[in-house]
């Protein structure tokens, strides 16, 4: 939708055959699009800034599949929650898929990421399969944290997890970036936080230290417009989150456009890899569901507003449109992906329901437990401490 | 001389001796009488002593009796103690057996689970299970449609093989692939829209059957325990069937809400779809029986009770089951899962049983379960299984709230009419400043006139009641005092030009007020016939909304119940309501001759007024006018 107009087909091999029509149609292998909502910069070093993004067919299909996977997974999680199969905390990522998928596409193997409690999508793109996420949500032993963590505590290699405390992951992210610098592995740490957490004091402490030591850290504000219970402009004195690093270079990107996210993140990453980090990146996005499951999400905004965003700015639908208009993929192909995703999530839901519940609840609480038993939710309830896994860093 | 003298002297001396002797005899007599008295006293004393002795002996004998009685009681107590001890041992043994049984059952579940896990890796087993699963789905649909299904249907998608493990235990939000006559569809159970929600009420549907559903569309408004929340569509597609209509209250979570299909063309296939009544089972409570054997049976028909009184048997009883679920000791035989489920669903088997025995005559609601329970479960020896609880749970009135029974009370659902009564009258009593005016009305003339009129109208089959006079008189009084014929509209007062009289009619469903429109212009005969037909309609529940909505003044008459007087609650937005008591004979001073007493028929009425509209003087004027019309009914013709 935002790419209307100058669509450049770099290679069309071979030309569509009009005689055979639908049967034997060949598709473009790469397409380039304008970035409809241009980047905004704050103290960003001079240099050439991309105004277009090109994407290969395979990469585009993979991105589409990942985004659909997240969307479907979150829908399934929402349904399971409403059946009371998932209990406790649950924050859904529906609407913000492009941020995770776009950023993941430019991450190198040594790069790392830490985010807040809205972490299901990130767990998925960082290598946890759908069963791992959903089974974690339902507290099963097959969950990615062995059913111990639940919604806010999912981890994977180089994925330092969700964090239950608003904004607490920001100093952690700076620390991980310090690790990259210290080890000299050229890695960058993506530190994500929401527009609500952007007003936290600890974020500015992290900015200060990161800039002081030029840490390779990208502070990413996922601005979905609403904190818990109210809109960003009612909570923040300045909603230009990309400028709020003051002395830290900032960049604003359209978080509903997966390719814009990819290009913007690449720009920030290049800066960090040159040793000129950190960067504050604001991704303007939107969340469709409430803040958490106890928030219907319609008390501080209208249902019409949500539906309008779905109709005009949806990251999946708009990317799909782009792929179709440039012949990167056919309608049937995308439908096939949709069906495969649906099937995979249905299977994962079945597993998440049926798999055995975790028994590791009191396992690995301490690396070296000095007492045999530890207390449960009340002090009178004692449980034997189990040692199951080996600590990775000891 | 000496001779006679000496004789005399000796005589004298003898005389003296005699005197002395006499005196001594007298003394002796006295002494002996004294002695006699003493002896008598002694005898009396002795008698008393004997009596005392006898009493003591009797007392001792009594004490002896009591002692032996006490000994017997003690012996009996010792025996009871022994009995209790034995009973206690029995109970402990029984509990141990139950615990052992539960442990065994838990182990079995674990074994079944592990078998399932093993089965997953073995292809052959999977195939076999796939078939079983299919059979089960067929059984479910067969139950839905009351049609037999047999072979595997070709359209069965390959997804089924993957999701079979999930389906036997629950259909939560599960996608069903085309089986039999039903194409691919998703069953949507009632969601928990708040973490503490247990049941919800469907306020409204935002979509109709056949509408397209896009992601994020509002599907229905559902009232939870906290608030009314929008339920967004969980699946894209088309709404094929709504199973719980708007307005249904207290639906448990998991009950089938609606069905969504992928293709628009499939909507028609669900036109006659009926909920099989299964409350979608909790995922975490798997059926312990072998999956292949768990064929869902339809709700069992109520069965007669052999041991209960003949009146206890409900009409339309089905065939008696071979075994009863209730042992001779009143213990309900049920599987542990059935007990757990029953407890979760609030069906206390034993309580229901007691309730059943108490009530003995009922055939609907939760007592139906008790009937079924006594009739027997489907398990061996009549043991109630989980499946029976499930089917019993939903065999109450479909789509309505089942009265919840709990021991000594019965919770009745609030019908819509009762809900309206509660809401409106609470609002009235809380927001309308009521005040009350009372007066007595001499009914002699009205009663006389009524008798005359009824005699005249006998052939036409019309019978005018006192109430018809009251309606007419009220309507005329309203025209005379129009301020009483008005309504409080918040920012203004509406004064009506016609007198539309609402008359409170009691029905078995609750109070309703049909209206005699333009009662001021109608004759008594018309009012009487109108009232008769309206009351009949009200009792049959056939009143149209326009027949009971509106009205400018209300009359509530409880005279026929022997009520002397009462104060009614104003029917908002009306300003007045007249509460009519009974008519009774009363001795009154004659107006013409103060020394005479006349007996008259007197009726007491109370006018409740909304002080925002009708001030005390206005109400009093109205009552005065009404009294005049009633006491001199001929003025009604003027």
UniProtKB/TrEMBL annotation, chain A:
<keyword id="KW-0786">Thiamine pyrophosphate</keyword>
<dbReference type="GO" id="GO:0004739">
    <property type="term" value="F:pyruvate dehydrogenase (acetyl-transferring) activity"/>
</dbReference>
<comment type="function">
    <text>The pyruvate dehydrogenase complex catalyzes the overall conversion of pyruvate to acetyl-CoA and CO(2).</text>
</comment>
<dbReference type="InterPro" id="IPR001017">
    <property type="entry name" value="DH_E1"/>
</dbReference>
<protein>
    <recommendedName>
        <fullName>Pyruvate dehydrogenase E1 component subunit alpha</fullName>
        <ecNumber>1.2.4.1</ecNumber>
    </recommendedName>
</protein>
<dbReference type="GO" id="GO:0006086">
    <property type="term" value="P:pyruvate decarboxylation to acetyl-CoA"/>
</dbReference>
<keyword id="KW-0809">Transit peptide</keyword>
<dbReference type="InterPro" id="IPR017597">
    <property type="entry name" value="Pyrv_DH_E1_asu_subgrp-y"/>
</dbReference>
<keyword id="KW-0560">Oxidoreductase</keyword>
<dbReference type="InterPro" id="IPR029061">
    <property type="entry name" value="THDP-binding"/>
</dbReference>
<keyword id="KW-0670">Pyruvate</keyword>
<dbReference type="Pfam" id="PF00676">
    <property type="entry name" value="E1_dh"/>
</dbReference>
<dbReference type="InterPro" id="IPR050642">
    <property type="entry name" value="PDH_E1_Alpha_Subunit"/>
</dbReference>
<feature type="domain" description="Dehydrogenase E1 component">
    <location>
        <begin position="65"/>
        <end position="358"/>
    </location>
</feature>
UniProtKB/TrEMBL annotation, chain B:
<dbReference type="InterPro" id="IPR001078">
    <property type="entry name" value="2-oxoacid_DH_actylTfrase"/>
</dbReference>
<dbReference type="GO" id="GO:0045254">
    <property type="term" value="C:pyruvate dehydrogenase complex"/>
</dbReference>
<keyword id="KW-0472">Membrane</keyword>
<dbReference type="InterPro" id="IPR000089">
    <property type="entry name" value="Biotin_lipoyl"/>
</dbReference>
<feature type="transmembrane region" description="Helical">
    <location>
        <begin position="86"/>
        <end position="105"/>
    </location>
</feature>
<dbReference type="Pfam" id="PF12352">
    <property type="entry name" value="V-SNARE_C"/>
</dbReference>
<dbReference type="Pfam" id="PF02817">
    <property type="entry name" value="E3_binding"/>
</dbReference>
<dbReference type="InterPro" id="IPR011053">
    <property type="entry name" value="Single_hybrid_motif"/>
</dbReference>
<dbReference type="Pfam" id="PF00198">
    <property type="entry name" value="2-oxoacid_dh"/>
</dbReference>
<keyword id="KW-0175">Coiled coil</keyword>
<keyword id="KW-0653">Protein transport</keyword>
<keyword id="KW-0012">Acyltransferase</keyword>
<dbReference type="InterPro" id="IPR003016">
    <property type="entry name" value="2-oxoA_DH_lipoyl-BS"/>
</dbReference>
<protein>
    <recommendedName>
        <fullName>Dihydrolipoamide acetyltransferase component of pyruvate dehydrogenase complex</fullName>
        <ecNumber>2.3.1.-</ecNumber>
    </recommendedName>
</protein>
<keyword id="KW-0813">Transport</keyword>
<dbReference type="InterPro" id="IPR023213">
    <property type="entry name" value="CAT-like_dom_sf"/>
</dbReference>
<comment type="similarity">
    <text>Belongs to the 2-oxoacid dehydrogenase family.</text>
</comment>
<keyword id="KW-0450">Lipoyl</keyword>
<dbReference type="InterPro" id="IPR004167">
    <property type="entry name" value="PSBD"/>
</dbReference>
<dbReference type="InterPro" id="IPR036625">
    <property type="entry name" value="E3-bd_dom_sf"/>
</dbReference>
<feature type="domain" description="Peripheral subunit-binding (PSBD)">
    <location>
        <begin position="333"/>
        <end position="393"/>
    </location>
</feature>
<dbReference type="GO" id="GO:0005737">
    <property type="term" value="C:cytoplasm"/>
</dbReference>
